[in-house]
């Protein structure tokens, strides 16, 4: 089946520099109503670079982007252009990809425990690959979708992962032969094995063990008449640089194990896929928040270093000469929004301040979200120069499990995303774009319309001395480059 993409209008910023961009926002922020709203900046070039790195490091493994990680439409379109598949876990996720034009063959329905109506929807739409991990799911599939291509998800040892899944999903490898027998007796079509080592995996042996178990089950399946053709090694690949177990370390170990356990000669028909989420999304997005309120508080100078206790920052006490000043900053995104990653994804975030010099004196500071909940605290304590209302705080690596799970509790939700891509990465995207994926309009990146627009449009970074723009940046139709993806 062909991909039938729907056009998406994207305003692409030219020659992007985040500091300059933020400064131009700042200049406008008090004159234009919502110009102080928080926003995200997405570097599509980062996604392209990640994909190139994947292809280099993992030539045998075809990525199926786990869309739950970040369902930004332009990101998904870029992934479509790059030719990846997609891991969807629900009817809505499948629908989203189909509406964006992905063919059902590119989708794996990777949720082992599914609602009946979602199974029926997958069947109606021709999404064939469906994951299961228990007996009841097999009976459900027999009744609702007997000719699905079933993938058995096995448990992994995820004890060294930050976000663990195996207490919830995956069949015990010891019990898998029995499950395979049941599927056989039900005359169901099991085509392969999948696993997920957990997010933030710190121990590469989790992959080794899971691959060994997979091979055992490939062998077992053969004895009951199946010839598996799919091996799905899941997600859990790091998307940022601040990790102990690097992507390259994982790929070198996994490639070696694939070579040992699933040599291409012996398994030429086996399609090896993965379900990376954070790998693609994490570093592509930068969140920019505005300081909407500040509060000066007193903090007793701690006797020995800094105490971690929240009580060390006392609210509402006027500082005296004997006390060190401390500050509380309230910004317009928080734990109920993009920073839900602190809670659900065990993420660590670091603020980047603009326009500060090392010489400025620093004060104990805490950073809080905008909702009325006391739990909505992003940074408990950090030494920072003094900030003012209207200042911007930049947060890098905010693409994975951030906006995807953020709520609009109390009326706050970061909505606006600005996109950019460097000329070099745009060329790379055109080169990498999978020409075999019929019907996907990736060529827009190199289209003459874009290039002309490119020349006409004033370079954002050269605008410093220009008089104040009557329109806030981004809403000014003259500056962004319109692109159809
Ligand atoms: C969440 C999830 C992924 C993606 O995990 P990352 O750590 O973001 O790579 C992949 N597969 C399944 C089944 C998932 O639930």
Report what the structure shows.
The protein has three domains: 9-31 and 417-484, no CATH class; 45-282, Alanine racemase (TIM Barrel, Alpha-Beta Barrel), CATH 3.20.20; 283-412, Lyase, Ornithine Decarboxylase, Chain A, domain 1 (Beta Barrel). It contains 13 helices and 20 strands. It is 28% helix and 22% strand. The chain starts with 8 loop residues before the first strand and ends with a strand. It has helices at 18-28, 44-57, 73-82, 91-99, 116-125, 135-144, 176-185, 205-223, 247-261, 278-281, 340-344, 423-432, 448-456, and strands at residues 9-13, 39-43, 61-66, 85-88, 107-109, 129-132, 149-153, 161-163, 189-194, 199-201, 230-232, 271-274, 285-299, 324-331, 351-353, 362-368, 377-385, 392-395, 416-420, 481-484. Helix 2 (44-57) packs parallel to helix 3 (73-82) and helix 2 (44-57) packs across helix 12 (423-432). By secondary structure, it is α/β, with parallel strands linked by helices. The strands form three sheets. Strands 1, 2, 13, 14, 15, 16, 17, 18, 19 and 20 form a ten-stranded mixed beta sheet that branches. Strands 3-4-5-6-7-9-11-12 form an eight-stranded parallel barrel, surrounded by four helices. Mean pLDDT is 84; it is low at 301-316 and 437-480. The structure holds pyridoxal-5'-phosphate (PLP).
Task: Detail the topology: elements first, then pairings.
Blueprint: E1 9-13, H1 18-28, E2 39-43, H2 44-57, E3 61-66, H3 73-82, E4 85-88, H4 91-99, E5 107-109, H5 116-125, E6 129-132, H6 135-144, E7 149-153, E8 161-163, H7 176-185, E9 189-194, E10 199-201, H8 205-223, E11 230-232, H9 247-261, E12 271-274, H10 278-281, E13 285-299, E14 324-331, H11 340-344, E15 351-353, E16 362-368, E17 377-385, E18 392-395, E19 416-420, H12 423-432, H13 448-456, E20 481-484
Parallel strand pairs: 1-19, 2-19, 3-4, 3-12, 4-5, 5-6, 6-7, 7-9, 9-11, 11-12, 14-16
Antiparallel strand pairs: 1-20, 2-13, 8-10, 13-14, 13-18, 15-18, 16-17
Helix pairs in contact: 2-3, 2-12, 8-9
Pyridoxal-5'-phosphate (PLP) binds next to helix 10.
